[in-house]
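User:
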Amino acid sequence: MELSSSLVLVLVLAVLVLFRWKRKPSGRSLPPGPLALPLIGNLPIIDKSAPFKSFMKWSKTYGPVMTVYLGPQRMVVLVGYDIVKEALVDQADDFAPRAPIPFLNRVVKGYGLIVSNGERWRQLRRFTLTTLRDFGMGRKRMEQWIQEESEHLLKSFEETRSKPVDPVFFLSRAVSNVICSLVFGQRFDYDDKSFLHLLQILSRLVRFISSPWGQLCNIFPRLMELLPGSHNTILREIDDIGSFIMNKVKEHEQNLDFNDPKDFIDCFLNRLNQEKDNHDTEFHKNNLTATVLNLFVAGTETTSTTLRYALMLLIKHPHIQVGQMQKEIDRVIGRNRVPTMEDRKSLPFTDAVIHEVQRFLDIVPLNVPHYAMKDITFRGYVIPKDTVIIPMLHSVLRDEVQWETPWTFNPEHFLDANGNFKKNPAFIPFSAGKLWTVYNLTPNKSFKVVNLKNKITYCEKS
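Assistant: Predicted structure:
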């Protein structure tokens, strides 16, 4: 019996050693990391609900650049402001590509801005940023859309007569309507059933992606395609959003004035028409639908979640809400007009609160996964081609060297000794380098918060 047990143990150890040897490129130095098992990698020892906590813990043993395995996928995790900045900013060309995300690829079939790389990414990124700037990012038109939607949001809150409410769909409707104005050229009534149905799908999609079942779709994509489950349900629901977008595209085609484009879809259709004879163009219906979906999802969920979290933090810190923020707003803006872009420079404390909300919220702790399109030399290690790279934003927003009280909600992080707003280079709530502008598409989130005329009495459902 002892001999049999010993043989089994030896065989298991041999398999583990062989597995590790095969995964280590010959003659190259991978970053260190915890021992990984065949096929399942480090999954048995990782915190499934918050993987970033495991990464932070392991970094204390293996250093700020380490190798982990989620299933069979090799990943290099970058921890800390200095490391992340060096990768995303100083070596931006090497670290800019995005990793394939199997579930999102199934949703958009490789099209659009978020999951693409190479020439497709360059063309769509350049076009999207230029068009968004032309149609309002930082300009009067966007300001007017935000002001108008703020009035609708306030009215919907007032209709509750100060009763406790769940603000999820209040804020999602308002934020999404600003995106809809930019993309579709129209806003939707808050009672529009089709509009509410789309927002419900978006909410379920975001919850699914962050769930263990959603993570399995990315770790074992081929296996999950064969299995029944909620992933198939959410994919069918996303088709409803695709149909909605295509109907809007058809409406735009019927009313398009090439000399007077009124929104993002008009501009894309205009460019599509200009390049209709170019067989290599990236301006076609598949990329249009996927890019609009990207903007719709990213713009709605990140901003509405940030606002919801801001309300919660202000409720928990009434001395900040009433004692400082509201006084500054009353002094600069008063209670008889809506804010303007110009007011922002006169609201340093309010601006600091908004930034601190985003830092403390830590909305994408793992960042969008990046990808090694070639072998990368970094910090004395070689990151092999086809490695997923995780520049952990959580480790930047909680970096104890960069923030005086990283684990405390403290607007003073963004104020100097004279009470003026100050920037902090470690403030990267979405990403940094060449990708940052793509994910920070909805600026001045403060307007939909600071325009609340009275003390906030709304609370989230427990």
